[in-house]
Design goal:
alpha+beta, binds zinc ion, 495 residues, 4 domains, five-stranded mixed β-sheet
Length: 495
């Protein structure tokens, strides 16, 4: 409800009442539609009442169109009245009040319009995550097919939607999981996360020596992806909670070209500003008390004190007493040279306060999603390998058991009449019998399919015995490549 708009209508009502009271007080009320003065006053009154209605409606419902119409109506009627100087509304202060009422409504309409736009923006943000996901899919497929024109704006839009989705996933763990599973399907993501799971790699560290933006030696073989894609994927993996990032270094970058690789630190003489500053290590000869630069003790004939000319044993008779910085240009000595940075790219010198600090990070796998990542990537890896054998793969796969119940398996695959159901389970250290029993209940109900159980990293003895006793074939391994190999061997039995 808009209070300023309502105040406008209240002023209008009061003005109407006062003018009506005046009218009646002056000439008494008489219904005489034939009198032009009366008819004119009647039309004006009706106009004001209609404006009043529109103003009240606009203020209550917060509709700017009605507030504008009401305000403009009042002002127009008032001006009309002024021009024809009709008896009913001819008092100066009433005119002022009417104008005020009209202006208030119009001013309020601007506020209402702004609020409306803001609400619209907010409602855009509140789009359901599922709709956002669907929209994202559409944009991604558009981006895949589109040529370079418009690709940038698409990229930006995709990025914005992903940001919104990740923000959403902070509130809903289910959404977070859904987004991570989608990510695992991306080739670049698999390549990166596999390094933590399929090998002993613990951290991806940047290399800073030569490049403008950090590169990652551990990912250097992913050279079919542009560096930008790798960085974007790493960022996305961090947003999703699959990887954790840690500040590795803050790089001083040039304020003009924004690159850090060509920026050199300079130590400058406080007197003449030259950067030809040398470091002198001052040593005291303990026997005579003389203090000279370390280099001055070194002569072609040995280590000799320049003051007393005696031979000096460096390790016992020379004591470091401090450092001094000597300017190669003016010869001045200082204890604390000024610092500056120089960009070789732009040939400009700048101070620390003017530089840009560029953060670089190292990345490691988030322990909390380790088993999820292992499981998902292992399944994707197996699925890829099995497809090459000519099987059709479903992950997850649904099969109907002899009891009539449908069961969901980690993966099912088929080739002609052959059907295989694979159950895969992960545990921190070893899989317990309970988890195996849950899969066994499903596997034993499907007689039409061959079964395989995959345990990551291994089974407890009791579970192993149980599977052996019930003739369910199984694979135990922590290595995704070994698991894929053994799964292929298992399938080749039926080829
Ligand atoms: Zn520069
Ligand atoms: Zn000496
Ligand atoms: Zn100097």
């Amino acid at each position: 409800m808009r209070q300023i708009g309502l105040v406008g209508t209240v002023i209008l009502v009061l003005s109407l009442i006062v003018s009506f009271a005046n009218y009646v007080g002056m000439r008494g009320f008489e219904w005489s539609p034939t009198s032009t003065g009366f008819a004119y006053s009647l039309v004006l009154s009706l106009g004001f009442i209609i404006s009043l209605g529109a103003g009240v409606f606009g203020a209550l419902k917060e509709m700017d169109e009605f507030l504008i119409a009401a305000g403009a109506g009042i002002i127009a009627l008032d001006l009309l009245n002024k021009l024809f100087a009709n008896v009913l509304y001819s008092w100066g202060y009433l005119d002022t009040m009417l104008l005020l009422a009209g202006v208030m409504m119009i001013l309020d309409s601007f506020y209402v319009r702004r609020a409306k736009v803001a609400r619209l923006e907010a409602s855009k943000l509140e789009t359901k995550p599922e709709e956002l996901l669907a929209h994202l899919d559409k944009l991604v497929s558009e981006a895949d097919t589109s040529q370079s024109d418009g690709a940038l704006t698409l990229e930006k839009e995709i990025f914005d939607i992903k940001q919104q989705l990740w923000a959403e996933s902070k509130k809903s763990p289910e959404m977070g999981r859904k987004l991570r599973i989608r990510l695992y399907h991306s080739r670049a993501v698999q390549e990166i996360v596999k390094r933590f799971i399929g090998s002993d790699m613990k951290v991806i560290e940047p290399a800073l020596e030569v490049s403008e933006s950090p590169t990652y030696p551990a990912l250097s073989d992913l050279n079919r992806y542009p560096q930008k894609t790798i960085q974007f994927t790493l960022n996305e993996l961090v947003e999703s909670g699959i990887l954790r990032k840690k500040l590795y270094e803050k790089l001083v970058s040039c304020p003009t070209c924004h690159h850090s690789s060509k920026v050199f630190t300079r130590h400058k003489c406080p007197k003449c500003e030259s950067y030809d500053v040398n470091i002198n290590r001052l040593m005291q000869h303990l026997e005579c008390g003389a203090v000279y630069d370390y280099k001055e003790y070194h002569t072609p004939t040995g280590i000799i004190c320049p003051k007393c000319s005696k031979a000096v044993d460096e390790s016992t008779q020379l004591k470091p007493v401090g450092v001094a910085f000597k300017c190669g240009s003016c010869g001045g000595i200082s204890s604390d040279p000024n610092k500056a940075f120089f960009c070789r790219n732009c040939a400009i010198e700048f101070q620390l306060k003017n530089c840009e600090l560029q953060d670089t990070y190292s990345y490691s796998l988030n322990d909390e999603v380790k088993s999820e990542a292992t499981e998902t990537l292992t399944v994707l890896n197996i699925a890829g390998a099995i497809e090459k054998l000519g099987f059709t793969v479903n992950a997850p796969g649904i099969l109907k058991g002899k009891t009539g119940i449908t069961h969901e398996f980690t993966l099912t695959c088929n080739k002609k009449e052959k059907i295989v159901a694979i159950e895969l389970a992960t545990a921190e250290e070893q899989l317990e019998i309970g988890r195996v029993l849950a899969s066994y209940a499903k596997l034993s109900d499907i007689t039409q399919a061959k079964s395989l159980f995959i345990a990551i990293p291994k089974l407890e003895q009791q579970a192993r015995d149980f599977l052996n006793a019930n003739r369910i074939q199984f694979i135990e391994s922590a290595n995704m490549y070994e698991i894929a190999d053994k799964t292929l061997q298992f399938l080749k039995q039926f080829d």
